[in-house]
Amino acid sequence: MKKYIAYISCALLMATFVGCDDFLDRDPLNKETNDSYWASESSLRTYAQDFYSYFFTGYGTDYTAFGGFFSGDNFTDDFQTRAGGQFAFPLSATTDINSTITPWTNNYQVVYKANVMIEKIPDMNVTDEVKNHWMGVARFFRAMGHSALLKTYGAVPYFEAVTDPADAETLYKDRDPYLTVAKSVLADFQYALQNVRTDDTKRQVNRYWVGALMSREMLYHATWLKYQGTTVGSGSQSVAEADLKELFQGAIDGATLVMNSGLYAIGNNYNGIFSSDDLAGNREVIIYREYTTGVQCNSLMSYNAGETHTMGDVTQDVINSYLCSDGLPIGQSPLYKGATDPSVANSFIDRDPRLYQTVVDTLRIMNSGIATAQSYTGYCTKKFLNEDWWSQNLDFCKNINSPADAPQVRYAEVLLNYVEARYEISKIGGSAFAQADLDQTINLLRGRKLTKWGETPQVERTMPGVTLAGSNLSVNGTVINDPARDNTVDPILWEIRRERRTELVMEGRRGEDLKRWAKYEYLNVNNADGTPTMAIVGAYIKKSDYPGIKDDVKLFNPNDPSNTAATEGYIYDPNLNGKRAFTKGDINSERYYLRALPAAQLTIYKDKGYTLTQNPGWE
Question: 579 with 117: CB under 8 angstroms?
Fold first, then answer.
Protein backbone atom coordinates (compact mmCIF):
# COMPACT_ATOMS: atom_id res chain seq x y z
CA MET A 1 0.00 0.00 0.00
CA LYS A 2 1.20 3.48 -0.77
CA LYS A 3 2.85 5.20 2.13
CA TYR A 4 0.93 7.95 3.82
CA ILE A 5 2.81 10.89 2.39
CA ALA A 6 0.84 13.97 1.53
CA TYR A 7 1.88 16.04 -1.44
CA ILE A 8 4.21 18.89 -0.67
CA SER A 9 2.19 21.83 0.54
CA CYS A 10 3.01 25.41 1.18
CA ALA A 11 4.79 25.57 4.49
CA LEU A 12 5.15 29.30 4.31
CA LEU A 13 2.59 31.26 2.37
CA MET A 14 3.32 34.54 0.70
CA ALA A 15 0.67 37.17 0.25
CA THR A 16 -0.97 37.40 -3.15
CA PHE A 17 0.70 40.32 -4.83
CA VAL A 18 -0.78 42.26 -7.73
CA GLY A 19 1.74 44.65 -9.18
CA CYS A 20 5.50 44.74 -9.61
CA ASP A 21 5.61 47.35 -6.88
CA ASP A 22 4.04 44.78 -4.53
CA PHE A 23 6.05 41.64 -5.09
CA LEU A 24 9.43 43.01 -6.13
CA ASP A 25 10.00 45.75 -3.57
CA ARG A 26 8.59 44.35 -0.32
CA ASP A 27 10.59 45.24 2.75
CA PRO A 28 11.90 42.15 4.58
CA LEU A 29 9.40 42.32 7.45
CA ASN A 30 8.01 38.81 7.49
CA LYS A 31 9.31 35.44 8.67
CA GLU A 32 10.50 34.45 5.24
CA THR A 33 12.88 37.37 4.74
CA ASN A 34 13.86 38.19 8.32
CA ASP A 35 17.56 37.53 8.88
CA SER A 36 16.86 35.49 12.02
CA TYR A 37 14.97 32.94 9.95
CA TRP A 38 17.98 31.95 7.82
CA ALA A 39 19.73 29.83 10.42
CA SER A 40 19.96 26.26 9.10
CA GLU A 41 19.44 23.91 6.17
CA SER A 42 16.03 22.99 7.56
CA SER A 43 15.03 26.65 7.17
CA LEU A 44 16.04 26.52 3.52
CA ARG A 45 14.13 23.30 2.95
CA THR A 46 10.99 24.66 4.57
CA TYR A 47 11.21 27.92 2.66
CA ALA A 48 11.64 26.12 -0.67
CA GLN A 49 8.52 23.96 -0.35
CA ASP A 50 6.28 26.76 -1.55
CA PHE A 51 7.87 26.60 -5.01
CA TYR A 52 6.52 23.13 -5.74
CA SER A 53 2.88 24.10 -5.82
CA TYR A 54 3.52 26.47 -8.75
CA PHE A 55 5.01 23.94 -11.14
CA PHE A 56 4.03 20.41 -10.08
CA THR A 57 0.24 20.36 -9.99
CA GLY A 58 -0.18 16.83 -11.34
CA TYR A 59 -3.78 15.94 -12.17
CA GLY A 60 -5.05 18.73 -9.95
CA THR A 61 -7.37 17.83 -7.09
CA ASP A 62 -11.05 16.94 -6.93
CA TYR A 63 -12.81 18.41 -10.00
CA THR A 64 -10.14 20.87 -11.02
CA ALA A 65 -8.89 21.06 -14.60
CA PHE A 66 -6.42 18.15 -14.41
CA GLY A 67 -3.31 20.33 -14.20
CA GLY A 68 -2.64 20.48 -17.95
CA PHE A 69 -3.29 16.80 -18.62
CA PHE A 70 -6.19 15.52 -20.72
CA SER A 71 -8.07 18.73 -21.61
CA GLY A 72 -5.76 21.19 -19.88
CA ASP A 73 -4.12 22.40 -23.10
CA ASN A 74 -6.30 25.25 -24.39
CA PHE A 75 -5.33 25.36 -28.05
CA THR A 76 -4.49 22.06 -29.70
CA ASP A 77 -5.55 19.88 -32.60
CA ASP A 78 -5.56 16.75 -30.43
CA PHE A 79 -8.96 17.32 -28.87
CA GLN A 80 -11.97 19.59 -28.68
CA THR A 81 -12.59 21.55 -25.49
CA ARG A 82 -15.93 23.31 -25.41
CA ALA A 83 -16.26 23.96 -21.68
CA GLY A 84 -15.53 27.53 -20.64
CA GLY A 85 -15.36 28.82 -24.20
CA GLN A 86 -11.84 27.46 -24.66
CA PHE A 87 -12.41 26.11 -28.15
CA ALA A 88 -12.06 29.43 -29.95
CA PHE A 89 -9.07 31.75 -29.91
CA PRO A 90 -9.42 34.63 -27.45
CA LEU A 91 -11.00 37.72 -28.93
CA SER A 92 -9.42 40.67 -27.13
CA ALA A 93 -6.83 41.71 -24.60
CA THR A 94 -9.33 42.72 -21.95
CA THR A 95 -12.32 40.38 -22.11
CA ASP A 96 -10.86 36.90 -22.14
CA ILE A 97 -8.04 34.65 -21.05
CA ASN A 98 -5.44 37.16 -22.21
CA SER A 99 -6.54 39.63 -19.56
CA THR A 100 -5.85 37.33 -16.61
CA ILE A 101 -3.09 38.48 -14.32
CA THR A 102 -2.45 35.13 -12.64
CA PRO A 103 0.47 33.86 -14.81
CA TRP A 104 2.24 37.22 -14.44
CA THR A 105 1.68 37.48 -10.68
CA ASN A 106 2.41 33.86 -9.82
CA ASN A 107 5.64 33.64 -11.75
CA TYR A 108 7.00 36.94 -10.52
CA GLN A 109 6.20 35.73 -7.02
CA VAL A 110 8.45 32.75 -7.74
CA VAL A 111 11.19 35.06 -9.06
CA TYR A 112 10.96 37.31 -6.00
CA LYS A 113 10.96 34.40 -3.60
CA ALA A 114 13.95 32.79 -5.35
CA ASN A 115 15.87 36.07 -5.31
CA VAL A 116 15.28 36.43 -1.56
CA MET A 117 16.73 32.95 -1.09
CA ILE A 118 19.71 33.73 -3.34
CA GLU A 119 20.39 36.91 -1.36
CA LYS A 120 20.28 35.24 2.07
CA ILE A 121 22.24 32.02 1.44
CA PRO A 122 25.79 33.49 1.23
CA ASP A 123 25.63 34.85 4.78
CA MET A 124 24.27 31.67 6.37
CA ASN A 125 26.35 29.63 8.79
CA VAL A 126 26.19 26.37 6.83
CA THR A 127 28.69 24.37 4.79
CA ASP A 128 29.65 25.29 1.25
CA GLU A 129 28.00 22.11 -0.01
CA VAL A 130 24.72 23.15 1.60
CA LYS A 131 25.03 26.66 0.20
CA ASN A 132 25.80 25.40 -3.30
CA HIS A 133 22.91 22.94 -3.32
CA TRP A 134 20.30 25.40 -2.11
CA MET A 135 21.64 28.18 -4.29
CA GLY A 136 21.16 25.74 -7.16
CA VAL A 137 17.60 25.02 -6.05
CA ALA A 138 16.83 28.74 -5.86
CA ARG A 139 18.33 29.40 -9.29
CA PHE A 140 16.45 26.40 -10.72
CA PHE A 141 13.14 27.84 -9.58
CA ARG A 142 14.12 31.35 -10.70
CA ALA A 143 14.80 29.85 -14.13
CA MET A 144 11.41 28.13 -14.09
CA GLY A 145 9.63 31.38 -13.17
CA HIS A 146 11.29 33.48 -15.85
CA SER A 147 10.89 30.66 -18.40
CA ALA A 148 7.15 30.44 -17.75
CA LEU A 149 6.87 34.21 -18.21
CA LEU A 150 8.73 34.01 -21.52
CA LYS A 151 6.47 31.23 -22.79
CA THR A 152 3.35 33.17 -21.85
CA TYR A 153 4.22 36.77 -22.74
CA GLY A 154 7.42 36.70 -24.78
CA ALA A 155 9.97 39.31 -23.70
CA VAL A 156 9.52 40.30 -20.05
CA PRO A 157 11.42 42.31 -17.41
CA TYR A 158 14.20 40.15 -15.97
CA PHE A 159 15.08 40.45 -12.27
CA GLU A 160 18.30 38.90 -10.99
CA ALA A 161 18.07 40.28 -7.45
CA VAL A 162 15.64 41.64 -4.89
CA THR A 163 14.92 45.18 -6.04
CA ASP A 164 15.47 48.17 -3.79
CA PRO A 165 12.08 49.92 -3.39
CA ALA A 166 13.81 53.22 -4.04
CA ASP A 167 15.23 52.02 -7.38
CA ALA A 168 12.28 52.91 -9.58
CA GLU A 169 14.33 52.68 -12.77
CA THR A 170 14.88 48.97 -12.14
CA LEU A 171 11.53 48.27 -10.54
CA TYR A 172 9.60 49.74 -13.46
CA LYS A 173 11.96 48.92 -16.31
CA ASP A 174 10.45 47.87 -19.62
CA ARG A 175 10.78 44.38 -21.02
CA ASP A 176 14.21 42.86 -21.59
CA PRO A 177 14.78 41.18 -24.98
CA TYR A 178 13.61 37.57 -25.27
CA LEU A 179 17.12 36.31 -26.05
CA THR A 180 18.59 38.12 -23.05
CA VAL A 181 16.09 36.53 -20.69
CA ALA A 182 16.48 33.10 -22.33
CA LYS A 183 20.25 33.21 -21.85
CA SER A 184 19.80 34.21 -18.21
CA VAL A 185 17.43 31.27 -17.76
CA LEU A 186 20.05 29.01 -19.33
CA ALA A 187 22.72 30.32 -16.94
CA ASP A 188 20.51 29.54 -13.94
CA PHE A 189 19.85 26.02 -15.22
CA GLN A 190 23.56 25.47 -15.84
CA TYR A 191 24.44 26.52 -12.29
CA ALA A 192 21.75 24.25 -10.87
CA LEU A 193 22.88 21.36 -13.07
CA GLN A 194 26.37 21.59 -11.58
CA ASN A 195 25.45 22.21 -7.94
CA VAL A 196 22.13 20.61 -7.00
CA ARG A 197 22.50 17.22 -5.30
CA THR A 198 21.92 14.05 -7.25
CA ASP A 199 19.63 12.89 -4.45
CA ASP A 200 17.94 15.05 -1.83
CA THR A 201 15.17 12.84 -0.42
CA LYS A 202 11.93 11.77 -2.06
CA ARG A 203 10.20 14.19 -4.43
CA GLN A 204 12.62 17.06 -3.81
CA VAL A 205 14.58 18.80 -6.55
CA ASN A 206 17.64 16.85 -7.61
CA ARG A 207 20.10 17.15 -10.46
CA TYR A 208 18.03 14.93 -12.75
CA TRP A 209 14.95 17.05 -12.24
CA VAL A 210 17.04 20.03 -13.29
CA GLY A 211 18.36 18.24 -16.37
CA ALA A 212 14.93 17.05 -17.45
CA LEU A 213 13.27 20.45 -17.16
CA MET A 214 16.30 22.18 -18.62
CA SER A 215 15.86 20.01 -21.71
CA ARG A 216 12.17 20.98 -21.95
CA GLU A 217 12.53 24.70 -21.32
CA MET A 218 15.64 25.34 -23.41
CA LEU A 219 14.24 23.39 -26.36
CA TYR A 220 11.17 25.61 -26.19
CA HIS A 221 13.15 28.85 -26.21
CA ALA A 222 15.60 27.73 -28.89
CA THR A 223 12.83 26.68 -31.28
CA TRP A 224 10.68 29.72 -30.48
CA LEU A 225 13.57 32.02 -31.39
CA LYS A 226 14.32 29.98 -34.52
CA TYR A 227 10.78 29.83 -35.90
CA GLN A 228 9.15 32.93 -34.38
CA GLY A 229 12.08 35.27 -33.79
CA THR A 230 12.19 37.79 -30.99
CA THR A 231 8.41 38.39 -30.92
CA VAL A 232 5.44 38.08 -33.28
CA GLY A 233 4.40 40.25 -36.19
CA SER A 234 6.47 42.42 -38.50
CA GLY A 235 8.68 43.66 -35.67
CA SER A 236 10.08 40.22 -34.96
CA GLN A 237 13.79 39.83 -35.64
CA SER A 238 15.74 36.69 -36.47
CA VAL A 239 18.35 35.37 -34.05
CA ALA A 240 21.95 34.51 -34.90
CA GLU A 241 22.75 30.81 -35.31
CA ALA A 242 25.45 31.04 -32.63
CA ASP A 243 22.86 32.12 -30.08
CA LEU A 244 20.45 29.39 -31.16
CA LYS A 245 23.22 26.79 -30.88
CA GLU A 246 23.90 27.88 -27.31
CA LEU A 247 20.27 27.35 -26.33
CA PHE A 248 19.90 24.06 -28.20
CA GLN A 249 23.08 22.84 -26.54
CA GLY A 250 21.54 23.67 -23.19
CA ALA A 251 18.61 21.37 -24.01
CA ILE A 252 21.02 18.65 -25.11
CA ASP A 253 23.17 19.00 -21.99
CA GLY A 254 20.18 18.72 -19.68
CA ALA A 255 18.86 15.65 -21.48
CA THR A 256 22.29 14.02 -21.68
CA LEU A 257 22.76 14.20 -17.93
CA VAL A 258 19.50 12.30 -17.42
CA MET A 259 20.18 9.80 -20.21
CA ASN A 260 23.66 8.98 -18.90
CA SER A 261 22.54 8.56 -15.30
CA GLY A 262 21.46 4.93 -15.71
CA LEU A 263 18.50 5.64 -13.42
CA TYR A 264 15.77 5.74 -16.05
CA ALA A 265 14.54 3.36 -18.74
CA ILE A 266 11.60 2.75 -21.07
CA GLY A 267 9.28 0.00 -19.83
CA ASN A 268 6.49 -2.09 -21.31
CA ASN A 269 3.38 -0.55 -19.75
CA TYR A 270 2.49 2.77 -21.37
CA ASN A 271 -1.00 3.05 -19.86
CA GLY A 272 0.28 2.21 -16.38
CA ILE A 273 2.38 5.38 -16.31
CA PHE A 274 -0.83 7.40 -16.08
CA SER A 275 -3.10 5.11 -14.04
CA SER A 276 -0.97 3.66 -11.24
CA ASP A 277 -1.39 4.36 -7.54
CA ASP A 278 2.37 4.36 -7.00
CA LEU A 279 4.97 5.72 -9.43
CA ALA A 280 7.82 5.63 -6.93
CA GLY A 281 9.56 2.69 -8.60
CA ASN A 282 8.65 3.46 -12.21
CA ARG A 283 11.87 4.09 -14.14
CA GLU A 284 10.00 5.93 -16.88
CA VAL A 285 9.03 8.70 -14.46
CA ILE A 286 11.42 11.44 -13.31
CA ILE A 287 9.01 13.75 -11.47
CA TYR A 288 5.54 12.84 -10.27
CA ARG A 289 2.81 14.08 -7.98
CA GLU A 290 1.67 11.57 -5.40
CA TYR A 291 -1.98 10.96 -4.52
CA THR A 292 -3.09 8.90 -1.55
CA THR A 293 -6.55 7.67 -0.58
CA GLY A 294 -7.84 9.65 2.37
CA VAL A 295 -5.24 12.37 1.92
CA GLN A 296 -5.46 13.88 -1.55
CA CYS A 297 -7.00 12.45 -4.73
CA ASN A 298 -8.09 13.51 -8.22
CA SER A 299 -11.08 13.05 -10.53
CA LEU A 300 -9.36 12.23 -13.81
CA MET A 301 -10.19 8.53 -13.58
CA SER A 302 -13.91 9.07 -13.02
CA TYR A 303 -14.14 11.65 -15.77
CA ASN A 304 -12.57 9.27 -18.27
CA ALA A 305 -14.52 6.23 -17.13
CA GLY A 306 -18.15 7.20 -17.04
CA GLU A 307 -18.95 10.86 -17.55
CA THR A 308 -20.28 12.77 -20.54
CA HIS A 309 -17.37 14.81 -21.83
CA THR A 310 -17.54 18.50 -22.59
CA MET A 311 -13.79 18.65 -23.01
CA GLY A 312 -10.98 16.34 -24.04
CA ASP A 313 -12.84 14.92 -27.05
CA VAL A 314 -10.18 13.27 -29.23
CA THR A 315 -10.16 14.43 -32.85
CA GLN A 316 -9.72 12.45 -36.04
CA ASP A 317 -6.59 14.49 -36.68
CA VAL A 318 -4.69 12.87 -33.82
CA ILE A 319 -6.01 9.39 -34.68
CA ASN A 320 -4.64 9.88 -38.20
CA SER A 321 -1.23 10.84 -36.84
CA TYR A 322 -0.54 7.37 -35.39
CA LEU A 323 1.54 5.15 -37.64
CA CYS A 324 0.53 1.71 -38.80
CA SER A 325 2.21 -1.27 -37.19
CA ASP A 326 4.74 -1.44 -40.06
CA GLY A 327 6.03 2.00 -39.03
CA LEU A 328 4.56 3.78 -42.06
CA PRO A 329 1.98 6.64 -42.10
CA ILE A 330 -1.61 5.76 -42.91
CA GLY A 331 -1.29 7.45 -46.30
CA GLN A 332 1.61 5.18 -47.24
CA SER A 333 1.09 1.88 -45.43
CA PRO A 334 -0.59 -1.04 -47.21
CA LEU A 335 -1.80 -2.18 -43.76
CA TYR A 336 -4.14 0.76 -43.26
CA LYS A 337 -7.70 -0.53 -43.47
CA GLY A 338 -9.38 2.85 -43.21
CA ALA A 339 -8.54 4.15 -46.67
CA THR A 340 -11.92 3.21 -48.15
CA ASP A 341 -13.93 2.80 -44.94
CA PRO A 342 -12.39 4.87 -42.11
CA SER A 343 -14.70 3.50 -39.44
CA VAL A 344 -13.42 3.09 -35.89
CA ALA A 345 -13.20 -0.68 -36.35
CA ASN A 346 -11.15 -0.38 -39.52
CA SER A 347 -8.96 2.56 -38.58
CA PHE A 348 -7.73 0.88 -35.37
CA ILE A 349 -6.48 -2.27 -37.13
CA ASP A 350 -2.69 -2.71 -37.31
CA ARG A 351 -1.73 0.58 -35.67
CA ASP A 352 0.95 1.78 -33.28
CA PRO A 353 0.05 -0.08 -30.05
CA ARG A 354 0.22 3.17 -28.07
CA LEU A 355 -3.05 4.06 -29.77
CA TYR A 356 -4.70 1.05 -28.10
CA GLN A 357 -3.53 2.25 -24.69
CA THR A 358 -4.56 5.85 -25.35
CA VAL A 359 -7.98 5.84 -27.04
CA VAL A 360 -10.91 3.41 -26.63
CA ASP A 361 -11.32 1.44 -29.86
CA THR A 362 -15.12 1.40 -29.83
CA LEU A 363 -17.42 4.30 -30.62
CA ARG A 364 -18.57 6.31 -27.58
CA ILE A 365 -20.61 8.99 -29.32
CA MET A 366 -22.77 11.50 -27.48
CA ASN A 367 -26.54 11.02 -27.86
CA SER A 368 -26.28 7.39 -28.90
CA GLY A 369 -27.72 5.77 -25.78
CA ILE A 370 -24.39 4.39 -24.55
CA ALA A 371 -24.15 4.16 -20.76
CA THR A 372 -20.37 4.56 -20.47
CA ALA A 373 -18.28 7.68 -21.04
CA GLN A 374 -19.27 9.58 -24.16
CA SER A 375 -17.77 12.39 -26.21
CA TYR A 376 -18.81 14.75 -28.97
CA THR A 377 -16.30 13.19 -31.36
CA GLY A 378 -17.12 9.57 -30.52
CA TYR A 379 -13.59 8.94 -29.26
CA CYS A 380 -12.98 8.54 -25.54
CA THR A 381 -9.61 8.35 -23.86
CA LYS A 382 -8.16 5.17 -22.41
CA LYS A 383 -4.83 6.73 -21.41
CA PHE A 384 -5.82 7.66 -17.85
CA LEU A 385 -8.08 4.69 -17.14
CA ASN A 386 -6.84 1.78 -15.01
CA GLU A 387 -8.09 -1.48 -16.52
CA ASP A 388 -8.06 -3.46 -13.28
CA TRP A 389 -9.82 -0.77 -11.26
CA TRP A 390 -12.45 -0.42 -13.97
CA SER A 391 -13.09 -4.18 -14.21
CA GLN A 392 -13.46 -4.35 -10.42
CA ASN A 393 -15.96 -1.48 -10.53
CA LEU A 394 -14.09 0.33 -7.76
CA ASP A 395 -15.72 3.43 -6.36
CA PHE A 396 -12.98 5.82 -7.37
CA CYS A 397 -13.70 5.08 -11.02
CA LYS A 398 -16.92 7.00 -10.39
CA ASN A 399 -15.95 9.86 -8.07
CA ILE A 400 -13.20 12.29 -7.12
CA ASN A 401 -11.17 9.80 -5.11
CA SER A 402 -8.72 8.39 -7.65
CA PRO A 403 -5.31 7.73 -6.05
CA ALA A 404 -3.54 7.50 -9.42
CA ASP A 405 -0.20 9.33 -9.31
CA ALA A 406 0.50 11.94 -12.00
CA PRO A 407 3.74 11.79 -14.03
CA GLN A 408 4.97 15.39 -14.27
CA VAL A 409 8.10 14.75 -16.34
CA ARG A 410 8.73 11.46 -18.09
CA TYR A 411 11.94 9.95 -19.37
CA ALA A 412 10.30 9.58 -22.78
CA GLU A 413 9.92 13.34 -23.03
CA VAL A 414 13.59 13.84 -22.21
CA LEU A 415 14.51 11.46 -25.06
CA LEU A 416 12.24 13.37 -27.41
CA ASN A 417 13.67 16.71 -26.29
CA TYR A 418 17.14 15.35 -26.97
CA VAL A 419 16.47 13.99 -30.46
CA GLU A 420 14.68 17.15 -31.59
CA ALA A 421 17.42 19.41 -30.23
CA ARG A 422 20.08 17.22 -31.85
CA TYR A 423 18.39 17.42 -35.22
CA GLU A 424 17.86 21.17 -34.96
CA ILE A 425 21.43 21.93 -33.91
CA SER A 426 22.79 19.77 -36.73
CA LYS A 427 21.15 22.18 -39.18
CA ILE A 428 22.91 25.25 -37.79
CA GLY A 429 26.50 24.08 -37.52
CA GLY A 430 26.32 21.40 -34.85
CA SER A 431 27.65 17.89 -35.33
CA ALA A 432 25.84 15.76 -37.92
CA PHE A 433 22.62 14.03 -36.93
CA ALA A 434 23.36 10.31 -36.67
CA GLN A 435 21.74 6.91 -36.36
CA ALA A 436 22.86 6.83 -32.74
CA ASP A 437 20.60 9.79 -32.05
CA LEU A 438 17.63 7.72 -33.20
CA ASP A 439 18.70 4.50 -31.51
CA GLN A 440 18.92 6.04 -28.05
CA THR A 441 15.63 7.94 -28.35
CA ILE A 442 12.83 7.15 -30.79
CA ASN A 443 13.83 3.54 -31.30
CA LEU A 444 13.77 2.93 -27.54
CA LEU A 445 10.19 4.21 -27.42
CA ARG A 446 9.15 2.06 -30.36
CA GLY A 447 10.70 -0.99 -28.76
CA ARG A 448 8.11 -1.13 -25.97
CA LYS A 449 6.16 -4.40 -25.80
CA LEU A 450 2.54 -3.31 -25.43
CA THR A 451 -0.76 -5.17 -25.33
CA LYS A 452 -4.28 -4.19 -26.31
CA TRP A 453 -6.96 -3.67 -23.66
CA GLY A 454 -9.54 -6.46 -23.59
CA GLU A 455 -7.79 -8.65 -26.14
CA THR A 456 -7.71 -12.39 -25.46
CA PRO A 457 -5.16 -13.84 -25.62
CA GLN A 458 -2.90 -10.85 -24.94
CA VAL A 459 -0.45 -10.22 -27.78
CA GLU A 460 2.69 -8.15 -27.26
CA ARG A 461 3.24 -5.61 -30.00
CA THR A 462 6.26 -3.45 -30.82
CA MET A 463 6.94 -0.87 -33.50
CA PRO A 464 9.83 -1.26 -35.92
CA GLY A 465 12.75 1.11 -35.44
CA VAL A 466 13.68 3.82 -37.88
CA THR A 467 16.90 4.11 -39.87
CA LEU A 468 18.59 7.25 -41.13
CA ALA A 469 18.41 7.32 -44.92
CA GLY A 470 20.06 10.52 -46.14
CA SER A 471 17.58 13.35 -45.66
CA ASN A 472 14.80 10.90 -44.78
CA LEU A 473 14.05 8.08 -42.40
CA SER A 474 13.28 4.54 -43.47
CA VAL A 475 11.66 1.58 -41.79
CA ASN A 476 12.41 -2.01 -42.81
CA GLY A 477 13.99 -0.72 -46.01
CA THR A 478 11.10 1.54 -47.04
CA VAL A 479 11.70 5.29 -47.06
CA ILE A 480 9.00 7.11 -45.13
CA ASN A 481 7.14 9.48 -47.42
CA ASP A 482 4.06 10.79 -45.66
CA PRO A 483 1.65 12.37 -48.18
CA ALA A 484 0.17 14.41 -45.29
CA ARG A 485 3.53 16.00 -44.39
CA ASP A 486 3.66 19.77 -44.09
CA ASN A 487 6.07 20.52 -46.93
CA THR A 488 7.69 23.33 -44.94
CA VAL A 489 8.98 20.74 -42.44
CA ASP A 490 11.95 18.49 -43.23
CA PRO A 491 10.95 14.80 -43.53
CA ILE A 492 13.13 13.73 -40.58
CA LEU A 493 11.88 16.55 -38.38
CA TRP A 494 8.30 15.71 -39.38
CA GLU A 495 8.73 12.18 -38.05
CA ILE A 496 10.43 13.42 -34.87
CA ARG A 497 7.49 15.74 -34.28
CA ARG A 498 5.00 12.93 -35.00
CA GLU A 499 6.72 10.72 -32.43
CA ARG A 500 6.49 13.52 -29.89
CA ARG A 501 2.80 14.04 -30.57
CA THR A 502 1.74 10.42 -30.24
CA GLU A 503 3.98 9.68 -27.24
CA LEU A 504 2.97 12.78 -25.27
CA VAL A 505 -0.63 13.18 -26.40
CA MET A 506 -2.87 14.81 -23.79
CA GLU A 507 0.02 15.56 -21.44
CA GLY A 508 -0.08 19.32 -21.92
CA ARG A 509 2.78 19.58 -24.40
CA ARG A 510 1.04 19.91 -27.77
CA GLY A 511 -0.12 23.51 -27.35
CA GLU A 512 3.38 24.63 -26.42
CA ASP A 513 4.82 22.68 -29.34
CA LEU A 514 2.55 24.39 -31.86
CA LYS A 515 3.50 27.79 -30.39
CA ARG A 516 7.25 27.26 -30.57
CA TRP A 517 7.07 25.75 -34.06
CA ALA A 518 4.88 28.66 -35.27
CA LYS A 519 2.23 26.21 -36.47
CA TYR A 520 -1.08 27.57 -35.23
CA GLU A 521 -2.41 27.10 -38.75
CA TYR A 522 -2.80 23.43 -37.80
CA LEU A 523 -5.60 24.57 -35.49
CA ASN A 524 -7.84 25.92 -38.23
CA VAL A 525 -11.26 24.31 -38.16
CA ASN A 526 -12.04 25.00 -41.82
CA ASN A 527 -10.20 24.38 -45.06
CA ALA A 528 -9.93 27.10 -47.69
CA ASP A 529 -13.16 25.81 -49.30
CA GLY A 530 -15.04 26.04 -46.01
CA THR A 531 -15.16 22.30 -45.32
CA PRO A 532 -14.11 21.11 -41.87
CA THR A 533 -10.54 20.05 -41.18
CA MET A 534 -9.60 16.86 -39.34
CA ALA A 535 -8.85 19.08 -36.31
CA ILE A 536 -12.58 19.61 -35.79
CA VAL A 537 -14.19 16.30 -36.76
CA GLY A 538 -14.58 13.04 -34.89
CA ALA A 539 -14.98 9.40 -35.85
CA TYR A 540 -16.33 8.27 -39.21
CA ILE A 541 -19.66 6.46 -38.83
CA LYS A 542 -22.72 5.26 -40.68
CA LYS A 543 -25.88 6.18 -38.82
CA SER A 544 -27.51 2.93 -39.87
CA ASP A 545 -24.97 1.11 -37.69
CA TYR A 546 -26.26 2.90 -34.58
CA PRO A 547 -30.06 2.67 -34.37
CA GLY A 548 -30.18 4.65 -31.11
CA ILE A 549 -28.35 7.66 -32.45
CA LYS A 550 -30.11 11.03 -32.15
CA ASP A 551 -31.00 13.21 -35.11
CA ASP A 552 -28.91 16.09 -33.81
CA VAL A 553 -25.68 14.16 -34.44
CA LYS A 554 -24.40 15.78 -37.63
CA LEU A 555 -21.96 14.22 -40.07
CA PHE A 556 -19.63 15.53 -42.75
CA ASN A 557 -19.12 13.28 -45.76
CA PRO A 558 -16.03 14.39 -47.72
CA ASN A 559 -17.35 12.54 -50.77
CA ASP A 560 -20.52 14.67 -50.68
CA PRO A 561 -19.50 17.91 -48.93
CA SER A 562 -22.66 19.84 -49.84
CA ASN A 563 -24.97 17.32 -48.13
CA THR A 564 -26.17 18.87 -44.86
CA ALA A 565 -28.05 15.72 -43.85
CA ALA A 566 -25.37 13.12 -44.46
CA THR A 567 -26.10 9.61 -43.20
CA GLU A 568 -22.44 8.67 -43.09
CA GLY A 569 -19.27 10.64 -42.54
CA TYR A 570 -17.19 12.21 -39.81
CA ILE A 571 -18.98 13.38 -36.68
CA TYR A 572 -19.14 17.11 -37.01
CA ASP A 573 -20.66 20.12 -35.24
CA PRO A 574 -21.46 22.90 -37.75
CA ASN A 575 -21.63 25.36 -34.84
CA LEU A 576 -17.83 25.19 -34.62
CA ASN A 577 -17.39 26.54 -38.16
CA GLY A 578 -15.13 29.58 -38.10
CA LYS A 579 -14.51 29.35 -34.39
CA ARG A 580 -10.77 29.05 -34.90
CA ALA A 581 -9.28 30.74 -37.96
CA PHE A 582 -5.57 31.49 -38.17
CA THR A 583 -3.96 33.38 -41.06
CA LYS A 584 -0.17 33.19 -41.10
CA GLY A 585 1.40 36.64 -41.35
CA ASP A 586 -1.72 38.48 -40.18
CA ILE A 587 -1.05 40.20 -36.85
CA ASN A 588 -4.66 39.62 -35.82
CA SER A 589 -3.81 35.92 -35.92
CA GLU A 590 -0.13 36.01 -34.99
CA ARG A 591 -0.88 37.80 -31.73
CA TYR A 592 -2.47 34.62 -30.36
CA TYR A 593 0.97 33.08 -29.90
CA LEU A 594 1.46 35.42 -26.91
CA ARG A 595 -0.89 36.61 -24.23
CA ALA A 596 -1.45 40.29 -23.74
CA LEU A 597 0.40 41.79 -20.81
CA PRO A 598 -2.18 42.33 -18.05
CA ALA A 599 -3.89 45.69 -18.16
CA ALA A 600 -3.31 46.10 -14.41
CA GLN A 601 0.45 46.00 -14.97
CA LEU A 602 0.30 48.58 -17.74
CA THR A 603 -1.69 50.86 -15.43
CA ILE A 604 0.75 50.44 -12.54
CA TYR A 605 3.65 51.44 -14.77
CA LYS A 606 1.76 54.37 -16.22
CA ASP A 607 0.75 55.67 -12.79
CA LYS A 608 4.42 55.63 -11.78
CA GLY A 609 5.47 57.50 -14.92
CA TYR A 610 6.89 54.51 -16.80
CA THR A 611 5.90 52.46 -19.84
CA LEU A 612 5.49 48.70 -20.09
CA THR A 613 5.30 47.83 -23.78
CA GLN A 614 2.31 45.72 -24.82
CA ASN A 615 2.61 42.71 -27.15
CA PRO A 616 2.04 43.26 -30.88
CA GLY A 617 -1.61 43.07 -31.85
CA TRP A 618 -2.84 43.68 -28.29
CA GLU A 619 -2.02 47.39 -28.13
Answer: no
